[in-house]
Amino acid sequence: MHGMFRILVVEDNADMRELFCTVLTESGYQAIPAADGMEALDVMEREYIDLLIADIMMPRMDGYELTRSLRDAGYNLPILMVTAKDQFDDMQTGFRAGTDDYMVKPIDVRELVLRVEALLRRARISSEKRIVVGSTVLDYDALTVTLNGKETTLPQKEFYLLYKLLSYPNKTFTRQQLMDEIWGMFSETDERTINTHINRLRERFADCKDFEIVTVRGLGYKAVKTSDE
Hints:
The chain is α/β, with parallel strands linked by helices. The chain has 8 helices and 12 strands.
């Protein structure tokens, strides 16, 4: 199974820590416990970790500080934050610090395992830098899309837009999110630009049976897989 994935569980509550580790181990992962952020950093220096689950509220070094110091040190592994209900407002801080996902206590352990799976799958996509949808292949480094064996190089922004949408099938992105990510947060570009790019992609892939880009009214766009893989 995916048994070789190593997951570091950083949680100062011993019962929770043990529970998470047990559930992850039963799901075929290798779980490594740490009681706080300092201990987690020690582990990270010694061994390779694929994914980190961290509580926000911990003594000595909280989840934000841990995340920030890992991101500053160039670690790009997925980080799943665990937060109590009343710290929910802090999540913005978490995402700015570089969190990939979060869960609010009380934690449903089955959902925890599903989130871990999804994060690892996404991390694998980004490290391989290739996305395969049916007979369509996107190669991030070359900015090419290969469709039925025919390779096309896309303009950079169009490619990044398509890659982003297909990295998270069925997930709706607002125009603002896509603008910030692809044109940069301080870009002067307006939302019409994104509509133009989406329309170009739709024209370009009008005959593609593997996916379509759907407009979510009032919100933005999502990519939907249409081939029966």
